[in-house]
Amino acid sequence: MREYHIGQTVVPYEVEWSPDRSTIGLSMDSSMELVVRAPVEASIEDVGDVLEEKKQWILETLYGLAEQEDPPLDKEYLSGEKLLYNGRRYRLKVYEDDVPEPKLDFDGTRFELRVPNDSPVSVRRKRQAVTDWYVEKATETLPSRADRYIDKLGLADVDIRVQALQRRWGEYRPGEVVLHWRLILAPRKIQDYVVAHELAHFRHEEHSDAFWNTVGTLVPDYRDRREWLRVNGNTLAV
């Protein structure tokens, strides 16, 4: 693990070398560990130059993560608890039924979790049923939120996929955008911001002024949505 020093602040970071990259990019998640993604032909000196250029961004992101709200307490998935969906909280009802494994359903006003009536059910099994439902819904609905932005950008042959991502809510890859399934917990306008952000990378790979201008044409209040995600991202947990 390398260290980057900004005055008295020590920022640990690691470098991920990739033959598919042509530029050096930075990211930081709630662990407050900086990740530098660099092309294989880049040198440590090149990385150091980018860190110096992005010094202010590193400090702002580091302090912003430290200010985030604490994640919610672990759920036990009992009747009366609430589950997030598209930014709203819905009450959960749990009842025993003749099912082999826990299964979650949603009727538009509340969640219902059916659990096997012939054996004790662990929190882990209930959480997995909840996660499976979220992943299914995210896979069904999140890609369609990209349609209008794809049209506005004049893009074609864009693949929108949903999966778990370790350090970000969305990721641009050549020809595709990958969205974290947990975005389905966030308000739709936050989902739209992440989608627009990643699609803008089809036009501008770096987070340049031109890139943010493109995001602004798609989502004029993107700064407010970005700030919401920065502050509340930790609460989007199952």
TrEMBL record:
Gene3D superfamilies: Metalloproteases ('zincins'), catalytic domain. CDD domains: M48_yhfN_like. It comes from the Archaea. Residues 23-230 form the YgjP-like metallopeptidase domain. InterPro entries: UTP_pyrophosphatase-like, YgjP-like_metallopeptidase. This is YgjP-like metallopeptidase domain-containing protein. It comes from Halobaculum gomorrense.
